[in-house]
């Protein structure tokens, strides 16, 4: 069982060394870089990664490009701001000892986010299961603009590994807000439009409050104190902005 660890990057000089070290156990580290302007590629190469430059086609397409370019059928996909926990590494290292006929076709892992100086337990952010280790002959990345995921073929078997994927995504509240306004909300609105979903002025007005209540109360964000409150507040901002952008996109389509 040989594993290719794939990482997509753009200007990730601050993260790429730690990311590569996190998957140093893999038989291959493959970095797909979308024309970074910093030292991302050089640092990755220093870490022993094979680096391929590919113009940005979107998250899912770039990750699938890495899957197709890998030397091995077993793929472990890692984002540059993620790290493999020691317990997860132990789980992965035990897999080659399993009889090949007993291996699943894909394995999902729990992802835990580090935010505002603490590990988050609630707000819908944990366990946030992600299917990241899989046999590419049995699955691949789905064609989505955002919140992309691996889709396995019909009949494929998926199991859960012990351990966690550690996620260091948001540096601070300013970074969180910028990610919502520049990436998550615009892409989310476009994905909703593509999926045939529509919104109204009423939905725009209630989307934010409902998202806050869902995150802070129903999903247990209150357990994370100030960090949980911030997560719920940004969830509200994201929901309201996404519906507002979707409404504008609907209007543009009607005028054509």
The appropriate CATH architecture of the largest domain is: Alpha-Beta Complex
| Helix/strand order | EHEHEHEEHEEEEEEHHH
Low-confidence spans:
none
CATH top level of the largest domain is Alpha Beta
What is CATH's topology name of the largest domain? Spore Coat Polysaccharide Biosynthesis Protein SpsA, Chain A
Radius of gyration: 19 Å
Distance between the termini: 53 Å
Q: Given the C-alpha coordinates, what overall shape results? A: globular
Major sheet, described briefly? 9 strands, mixed
How many structural domains can be distinguished in the coordinates? 2
Number of extended strands: 11
Which quaternary structure do these chains form?
single chain
Number of helices: 7
Write the layout of secondary structure elements.
Layout lengths: L2 E7 L6 H7 L5 E6 L6 H7 L3 E4 L5 H11 L4 E4 L4 E3 L1 H9 L11 E10 L2 E2 L10 E6 L3 E3 L8 E3 L5 E10 L5 H22 L6 H18 L6 H31 L1
Helix pairs in contact: 5-7, 6-7
């Amino acid at each position: 069982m040989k594993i290719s660890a794939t990482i997509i990057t753009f200007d990730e000089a601050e993260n790429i060394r730690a990311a590569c070290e996190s998957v140093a156990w893999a038989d291959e580290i493959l970095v797909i870089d979308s024309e970074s302007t910093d030292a991302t590629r050089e640092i990755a190469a220093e870490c022993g990664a094979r680096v391929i430059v590919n113009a940005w086609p979107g998250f899912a397409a770039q990750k699938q490009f890495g899957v197709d370019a890998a030397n091995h059928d077993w793929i472990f996909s890692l984002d540059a701001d993620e790290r493999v926990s020691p317990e997860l590494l132990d789980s992965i290292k035990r897999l080659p000892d399993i009889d090949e006929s007993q291996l699943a076709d894909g394995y999902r892992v729990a992802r835990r986010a580090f935010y505002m100086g603490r590990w988050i337990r609630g707000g819908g952010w944990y366990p946030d299961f992600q299917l990241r280790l899989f046999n590419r002959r049995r699955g691949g990345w789905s064609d989505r603009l955002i919140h992309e995921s691996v889709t396995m073929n019909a009949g494929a078997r998926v199991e859960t590994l012990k351990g966690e994927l550690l996620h260091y995504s948001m540096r601070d509240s300013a970074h969180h807000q910028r990610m919502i306004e520049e990436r998550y909300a615009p892409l989310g609105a476009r994905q909703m439009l593509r999926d045939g979903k529509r919104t109204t002025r009423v939905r725009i007005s209630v989307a934010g409050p409902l998202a806050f209540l869902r995150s802070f109360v129903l999903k247990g964000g209150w357990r994370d104190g100030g960090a949980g409150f911030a997560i719920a507040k940004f969830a509200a901002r994201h929901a309201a902005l996404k519906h507002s952008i979707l409404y504008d996109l609907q209007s543009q389509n009607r005028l054509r």
